[in-house]
Amino acid sequence: MRFLRVLLFNDHGRGGGAERYVDTVADALKAKRIETVKLCRVRGGNGWIELGGVPEVRLSDYIKGNMSYQKLLDQVLFKFKPDIVHVNEVQLYYADLLVKLSRKYCSKLVLTTHNYGYLCPTALYIKIPEMEPCDKPYFNNHCLTCLLNTGSGFQSKLRNSSRVLYSMSKWSSFLSSFDTIISPSQLFAELLRDKITKNVHHLWNPIRRRFLEEQPETQDDTKKQVLFAGRLVESKGVKFLPLLARLLKNVSFLVAGSGPLRGYLIRNGTENIICCGLTDEEGIVRLLDKCDVTIVPSAVCEMSPTIITESLSRGKPVVAFDLGGQAELVKWSGGGFVAGPFDIYDFSEKVEKLIQGRELATKMGHRGRESIKRNSDPGHYAERLLNIYYYL
Predict the structure, then answer these.
(1) Domain of residue 44, residue span
(2) Burial of 200 (0-12, 13-18, 19+ CB in 10 A)
(3) Is 150 part of any domain?
């Protein structure tokens, strides 16, 4: 195979699952001796940094005074001259420029999607205000209703609608510019093929090797614990947690993460909700190994929640709503249950079934772990990725 240089681009910071995807892919490609550089932005920061790779390309070295983003990106592409520019996420106002400059240096463009916003004006893929699963991509006869129910005040609604209608058109053009698109969601891949382009691959996201190398520890059978891990925001279903905790009084709810709804949990939570705070990869492994079940009550369609893959890799079953990529992962792996969308009583019954049925939970957890080992191993993912790269 011919020599390749790959530039991994991510403009949505670090910390979340979509952001960690870049780190995982970079490590997997380097293990295959592919020259790889990551171009990422620190969440909440103004500067850009390079987070490792060969050759050394530190983006902070390029930032002098008021140097424009265009000049910065142009210099990075000129210095590294990548064969492949693999984009994870990008802000809309950088999209055209990224495509233009990549083509200037004859780089092939690959996109991994982690955002329903490409095909949904609210990025939720949920009908508002009904809060029901959507069944069609943008644009359908319910989109205007969703737009009118976002924002407050007539001017705000009008501004949001105008902005979204413009951005959806731009995103469609942006997606059509790529040589190939990779989706961790089979549903989203099918929507893209039907709506925008046929050149779409479906690959389950890779997992950090740390979650696969060590066997899960045996938890204390006398404890009943479930884990919620993620940003403490409404879209992740944080507001469902107090009711779930009341319905499952004898179960401890371990909550790992930080965010604006931490105060809400403290004010409305119960004694069996234990806030563990923000934790690192090692901390997540420890929490997974001590819990019985992982819950993912997200109120929106997610593309490929990392916590589900991590939980299954540690042999722990998952309960999620029957929505988007989270339902796909649970059903595909056989490693848990899906509840009716936003049916918190059905959700609690599924959790209770796994808590009380240790044998069933163990069986589902084992099945999920084997699925992840077969399909999300980073080495196998890198091989599939290289096959895509080389045929562009």
Answers:
(1) 5-112+178-206+377-390
(2) buried
(3) no
Q: Give the total number of structural domains in the chain.
A: 2
pLDDT tens profile 305-361: 999 999 999 999 999 999 999 999 999 999 999 999 999 999 999 999 999 998 999
Give residues with Cβ within 8 angstroms of 163, minimum separation 6. none
Residue 258 lies in a domain: yes
Q: How many CB atoms lie within 10 A of CB 280?
A: 7
H or E stretch at 228:
strand 225-229
Is the pLDDT score of 54 beyond 50? no
Sign of CA dihedral 68, 21, 228, 338: positive
How many Å from the N-terminal Cα to the C-terminal Cα in the chain? 13
Query: What is the rounded CA–CA span in Å between residue 246 and residue 270?
Result: 7
pLDDT digits (tens, 9 = 90+) for 10-43: 876 555 677 788 889 999 999 999 988 888 765 4
What residue type is assigned to position 66 of the chain?
N
pLDDT at 77 over 70: yes
CA distance 383 to 257: 33
* CA distance linking residue 113 with residue 86, whole number of Å: 11
pLDDT at 51 over 50: no
pLDDT value at position 167?
73
CB 187 within 8 A of CB 329: no
Nearest to 302 by CA among 195, 129, 189, 185: 185
Question: Distance (Å, rounded) from C-alpha 324 to C-alpha 104?
Answer: 36
Q: Convert the pLDDT of each residue in 162-171 to its tens digit.
A: 667 677 777 8
Q: What is the CATH number of the domain that holds 214?
A: 3.40.50.2000
